[in-house]
Amino acid sequence: MAVQPDSGGKDDVKTQFVTREGTYRLMTLSEYSRPNRVGYTSGSGSSHVRVSLVSLPPGPGSGAPGSDGQGSDDRICFNHGKELYVYVYRGVKKAADLSKPVDKKMYKGTNPTCHDFNTVTMTAENVSLVIGFSTGQIQLIDPIKKELSKLYNEERLIDKTRVTCIKWVPGSSNLFISAHASGQLYVYNEELTCGTTAPHYQLFKQGDGYSIHTCRTKSTRNPLYRWVIGAEGSCINEFAFSPCGTNLAVVSQDGFLRVFHYDTMELIGRARSYFGGFLCVCWSPDGKYVVVGGEDDLVTVWSFSELRVVARGQGHRSWVSVVAFDPYVVSFTDPDNEEVIEEDKQKSESVQCYRLGSVSQDTQLCLWDLTEDVLKPPVRARASAHLSPNSQTFSPNGIPGTKLPTKGTKSNKIGHKHAELSGQTNATGEPSGAKLATKTKSNNISTLNISVGKAKEENSGSLGVNSLTQRLAGFSFGDRRSEHRRNFSLTSKPAEQKTSASNTVALRGKSAGAASNDTYDPLKLIGTPLCPRFDECPVLEPLVCKKIAHERLTALLFRAEYLVTACADGCVNTWARPARTHNGEPRAHRRFERIDLVD
Amino acid sequence: MSICQDLGLNFQQRMGANISQLERDIGSEQFPPNEHYFGLVNFGNTCYSNSVLQALYFCRPFREKVLEYKAKNKRTKETLLTCLADLFYSIATQKKKVGSIAPKKFIARLRKEKEEFDNYMQQDAHEFLNFLINHINEIILAERNQNTLKVQKNASENVTCNGTVPQNTEPTWVHEIFQGTLTSETRCLNCETVSSKDEHFFDLQVDVGQNTSITHCLKCFSDTETLCNDNKFKCDHCSSYQEAQKRMRVKKLPLILALHLKRFKYMEQYNRHIKVSHRVVFPLELRLFNTSDDAVNPDRLYDLVAVVVHCGSGPNRGHYISIVKSHGFWLLFDDDMVDKIDASAIEDFYGLTSDIQKSSETGYILFYQSRDASC
Q: Looking at the partner chain, which of A4, A277, A526 has a beta carbon nearest the beta carbon of B299?
């Protein structure tokens, strides 16, 4: 009963999964791939299939090339091997028409690895798509107009290594950033040339574990800046701008997350993986949390305000390749709920529960609920169904002024208002802020999938009975942890607290000029807020964990009506969200009526 | 024998160009001082031995202890350990930085020591590793007991009269390097009594799942198992066979953690072993999730230092090579050939995501070395 099933490849690939919102279904006809799919042979190595989606502003010319009179303003771009495709993306409304790509490219001697649409300059008739390649070059095209085609780093004078991530600077019409396997990140202006010689750099700024350089030339040229980040030659795997565009989070193969203030180029904070490289990074929609995934098979949640790892999610069977918040499924504090208000009045508007998605090389999709009770230090022992009594003696994680709850008995139900942003999107296709959300009543949500550390149930005899607590807390043999480990506090031991505090100060101050190697030594960082010991940090379990592909998953995007996943064999799949309910009543199914035909 | 010598000659001639290539790839300035990269000549299906020996050579604590043994022990009786020490010493004291060596004496000794290896058939690299580690350990223990016996005889003839030699339980350097402790906890489902038993290991043998990580395979290794039906647990408390739940977790983490991926599965329907080529990723850095609550150093951080790779379709065919990390870069040892490889090429040895292909090059034994190792 407690034995886990064989994790072999025989598990069925799921075409639907259920959360509390309802059932998500795979839209089998909305599968995008190369037009004539021939028998795919699983090649090793670079299967970096990525997906970019863009919603073009509706234009007068529905006859514009590419839009094809199909009535969809969405375009999807994905790469597979040497190829890159742009299609009209018709979401869940209509089946994919693979016979007429908007654009397709086949490259020789190099593979496209990543791409990004510019949402600032786009119109109904044109859009700039910047593409990075496995050999370091960068191309700028307009897949609709097809007039534009520029190359950057063409002679590989700037960087010879694979472009691992490429993105337009938020709000900018002409600046984009490329990250490379060499551990460097370059800021380009698409209007400038790259020169005919290798750039000569001069130091512009230096900080703890990074330096920023500019080109030493008379006329400005590309790259505008070169950021050298982390241990020498350690691949930058991904970067992400905060929703406000102010901060830049970068994850590297050296196992570090680094968060910079983009304009001042100051290092704001760091986190260290439990082990191995960090592979992917994303921001919560409100910019309060950064989530990273990596080679430790974990999803790690880092608090921007507290500069510490606040939780880890364990559920994947292999490396986590993409993490993404679902901005459309957010639960808010219930203002009607007295308890919450009395607890924290200012925050009655703030998000109470975030929905996070992750996909992995294990071919599984995991969905996670990040609830306030885990993210915030255990000020009160809510959702403490699985905490041992001594967990109430937690130190409140160094947050000054917080008091331990006086109310001892607390139900583990949290009054959540379950709200979904009702499809309101701005031009970029992103939700225009959580506050716009229409609040919908929904059931109380108990955060049963959370247990803290190795806190054990008091009743050690419940082995194998309570499946929710079993995995972490469970299998309690009645063995007791040694005293110093049982009384775990999330702020770790005093000595370590001291060093980590001074680290933080150094990081927050100007650039910490005299950075000792210690600040990057994982043996010194273990047990600090940057990398808590495993049993000192809350461990989340996924809400949903489903095998949804035969191949490694490489992309995950959340949109108002659907989610998009892609895997290493070049298949891009669309999953329809559950039909919404409003006040408990099924809503008009207008938006989804065609689904039934497809399904 | 003459065939083998011919082969050896051929290889060495062929190597001429390659050797300088390796030095060129590394660069004379980058070439680490006092380091030698020497391939090992194949004596006819001895790649199982060559690949393991190279991996062990680049487990620095092991190499240093073997060389220390060589320095301390003036030629006594030839054992497999003296042959290994001579081989390591010979590699470490070569004038040239790169080249190839014929481990003739070692192979000859190995064939004398163990019948199973006394042929020209392909052997299982893990079986060989297991044999070698245990055998070396026994040699050390035997020599130590001999010494204590001598000391006792010389020093005092009237100390003990019970005649039994006090067993020296102090760990050998093989124990210190490779030995870890597993604690198996069994809970009787009848009386709820938990009994735990410790056992030592030199390596962990883990089942492999498709599209998983070694981390996950290790976690599965420690999954709770229910003992029932024919496999009930004899509970001392109940004095009878009862259903029980059992799990194994790591209590003492070894200095070098050797992980054997069980890639050869016996399939009844085929009546033979089939290679499981599942893709199992292994990170360059590792911590264990499956440690016991009383583990001494549960967050010990390991670095991948060597991988024995099996190439081919089955246990008795195919080829073994090894990839090792030395001074920050990765080298591939394919018998007498040595090449520098990019760290990104390691992913070629994770395995296959589909079963269409019969043959694969997959990580088979992983050597993780604790970062707090004193060297």
A: A526
Q: Do B213 and A181 touch (CB under 8 A)?
A: no
Model confidence at B359: pLDDT above 70: yes
Residue B301 above 90 pLDDT? Answer: yes
Angle at A227 between CA A225 and CA A230, to 5 degrees: 175
> In angstroms, what separates the C-alpha of A581 from chain B's closest C-alpha?
37
ipTM of the complex: 0.90
> Does A317 sit within 8 Å of B211, measured CB to CB?
yes
CA distance A472 to A462: 13
Cβ–Cβ contact A255 with B under 8 A: yes
Band of residue A60 on the pLDDT scale cut at 50, 70, 90? low
Is any Cβ of chain B less than 8 angstroms from the Cβ of A552? yes
The percentage of residues in chain A with a pLDDT greater than 90, rounded to a whole number, is 52
Residue B211: which of A9, A464, A527 has the nearest Cβ? A9
The per-residue pLDDT for range A487-498, each reduced to its tens digit, is 333 333 333 333
Nearest to A255 among B285, B293, B350 (CB): B285
What's the pLDDT score for residue B333?
97
Using the beta-carbon criterion (under 8 Å), do B301 and A526 form an inter-chain contact?
A: yes
What average pLDDT score do residues B81-96 get? Answer: 95
User: In this predicted model, what pLDDT tens digit does every residue of B203-254 receive, in sequence order?
Assistant: 999 999 999 999 999 999 999 999 988 888 988 889 899 999 999 999 999 9
Q: Which residue of A has its CA nearest to B297?
A: A533
Q: B165 to chain A, minimum CA–CA distance in Å?
A: 38
pLDDT tens per residue across span A68-116: 445 578 999 999 999 999 999 988 778 888 888 999 999 999 999 999 9
pLDDT for residue A594:
33
CATH number corresponding to B2-152+169-370:
3.90.70.10
> What is the overall mean pLDDT for chain A?
74
Give me the residue spans of the domains in chain B: 2-152+169-370
Q: Is the distance from CB of B282 to CB of B363 less than 8 angstroms?
A: yes
Q: Which residues of B are catalytic?
A: 47, 319
Does A38 lie at the interface with B, CB-CB under 8 angstroms? no
Q: What pLDDT digit, counting tens, does each position of A511-570 carry? A: 333 344 678 899 999 999 999 999 999 999 999 999 999 999 999 999 999 999 999 989
pTM given for the model: 0.81
Using N-to-C axis directions, what is the helix angle for B47-57 and B80-92, rounded to 10°?
60
> Is A471's Cβ below 8 Å from some Cβ in B?
no
Residue partners of B372: CB distance under 8 A and separation at least 6: A523, B300, B301
The confidence score (pLDDT) of residue B115 equals: 85
Cβ contacts below 8 Å, chain A against chain B, sum to 135
Would you call B283 and A295 a contact, using CB atoms and an 8 Å cutoff? yes
Interchain contact, B283 vs A477, CB within 8 Å: no
Q: What is the mean pLDDT of residues A404-412?
A: 37
Cβ contact A8–B278 (<8 Å)? yes
pLDDT of residue B146: 83
A266 lies within 8 A of chain B by CB: no
